[in-house]
Specification:
elongated, 2 domains, Jelly Rolls, 32 strands
Length: 471
């Protein structure tokens, strides 16, 4: 749930035989020499274990590399005498004069990928890339065969460069499936027009990365919703945010303090109810829906190094936008997105079986610019196989100064590391305390005339475990 105005745009992944539109949560635009990254001479800082790429710098030959596109031939040329912030002296040049279509790609061979990956283990893939045109064209790195299949993980990393210098692109990931004999390093290239890239130091290695520790199985704090049915949530814990100003997302509801929109259900749960109801709020806006947005700012905070979760039945339906999220407690001082935001659960009512998670971070040096991650990124969207309102699911997140990991029913979904954030031009605001937010918004796509009279998000106790995860 976005705290302020954010325009979600789309990253197009062009793949053989189909077109996948994935939500762009960040685009890397790094002018000039990559500064701190230049300190790495190997192109694989911190990597350990066996190398999974056959010849990531084409030191010997171009054997095994292939490239293809819908239209327009793609050239592969081994380049010698290369210099940069790495030890390699050779690189692969990938170019095309012109072309149109929905996909273009190059594949670099791996060493026995069918046995290289072990489900549950952590790996890091990296490559040094430069755009010899400085044309701000997308260049992506992931793991797949030429049909975008046989993927040991959904992780991908993309860059766009407005200069001709070398840049390191990197992504840490957890393998979720085995590799296959044809799994390769898949380089996603601009689908249309010409381009000219050079790349070297392609590497995939098992990597030791920070993960949540094991915590006690007893929560350090439980925020309860016990109380008489129809009464308001306790004011000692919860603040009401009110108004119908659109909330930066052109939302259609007015948030109120009425128990008609937020009440205890008498069975230990909180009901947040979005209603089809035309109301003029105290801020002067007239809206066709009412709802509630609650937060614990100044009353309850979650410390870094903690896991927070709740069992939630989330409403569905076109335009319905339920959310359970955390915001940096220093937002009044630093603003959003510099405060950071962790979207533990977001529903998009028109896709009732999909649960989304996301993160909001600011661009390094630009605290007001959001470089988000999630939804279309690896693990950011989970298909529950049933509507979100079919039954309660546990939604949780762990965060600290090194890693954020999201969970559904205590199974990890999306993980993102501070090292990858820094390499992609993002700040890391998650080493500090956060407060909790719960709400049901009505997105601009809703039609009041066709919407149901009400939609309810049912929220169970919110448990906070300090020091790790309890499972």
């Amino acid at each position: 749930m976005l705290h302020s105005l954010v325009n979600r745009t789309r990253r197009n992944l062009r793949i053989r035989g189909l077109f996948a539109a994935a939500l762009v949560i960040a685009t890397l635009v790094l002018p000039g020499t990559p500064g701190a990254l230049a300190a790495s001479a190997s192109g694989a800082p911190g990597a350990s274990g066996a190398e999974g790429v056959l010849d990531g710098s084409v030191a010997a030959a171009t054997h095994g590399w292939t490239a293809s596109a819908v239209t327009g031939g793609i050239g592969l040329r081994r380049v010698t005498g290369v210099t940069g912030p790495f030890t390699a002296k050779t690189a692969m040049e990938i170019s095309r004069g012109s072309g149109t279509g929905s996909w273009a790609l190059a594949l670099a061979p791996m060493r026995n990928p069918a046995v290289f990956f072990t489900v549950g283990r952590t790996y890091r893939m990296q490559a040094w890339v430069r755009d010899l045109t400085g044309g701000n064209r997308p260049f992506g790195m992931l793991l797949a065969n030429g049909n975008y299949e046989h993927r040991p993980a959904d992780a991908a990393v993309y860059g766009r460069f407005t200069d001709t210098g070398w840049h390191l692109i990197t992504r840490t990931f957890v393998a979720t499936a085995a590799g296959h004999a044809d799994t390769s390093v898949y380089l996603s290239l601009p689908a249309s027009n010409g381009f000219r890239f050079q790349t070297t130091g392609l590497t995939v290695k098992e990597h030791v990365a920070a993960l949540p520790a094991k915590a006690d199985t007893v929560a350090d704090r439980v925020i309860s919703f016990a109380g008489k049915a129809g009464t308001a949530p306790p004011a000692a814990i919860w603040n009401h945010e009110t108004g119908g100003n659109g909330w930066g997302n052109r939302e259609l509801q007015t948030y109120t303090t009425a128990t008609a929109n937020a009440q205890l259900d008498g069975a230990g749960r909180l009901a947040i109810i979005a209603r089809r109801q035309t109301v003029k709020g105290t801020d002067g806006f007239t809206r066709d829906f009412t709802s509630a947005r609650l937060n614990t700012k100044g009353k309850v905070t979650v410390q870094p190094g903690s896991y927070v979760e709740s069992a939630i039945v989330a409403p569905v339906g076109t335009g319905v936008w339920p959310a359970f999220w955390l915001v940096g407690a220093d937002i009044a001082k630093v603003g959003w997105p510099a405060s950071g935001e962790l979207d533990i659960l977001e529903g998009a009512g028109a896709t009732p079986t999909l649960a989304h998670s996301g993160m909001h971070m600011s661009k390094i040096g630009e605290p007001g610019t959001d470089l988000a991650y999630g939804w279309g990124d690896a693990g950011g969207t989970t298909d529950l196989g049933e509507p979100l309102d079919a039954r309660a699911h546990r939604y949780g997140v762990y965060f600290d100064k090194q890693v954020v990991r999201f969970y559904i029913d205590r199974k990890p979904t999306m993980t993102f590391w501070a090292t990858d954030a820094a390499a992609s031009g993002r700040t890391w605001p998650f080493g500090k305390e956060n407060f909790i937010v719960l709400n049901v918004a009505i997105a601009a796509s809703a039609d009041p005339a066709r919407s149901a009279p009400s939609r309810t998000m049912s929220v169970g106790d919110i448990a906070i475990y300090e020091g790790g995860v309890p499972f």
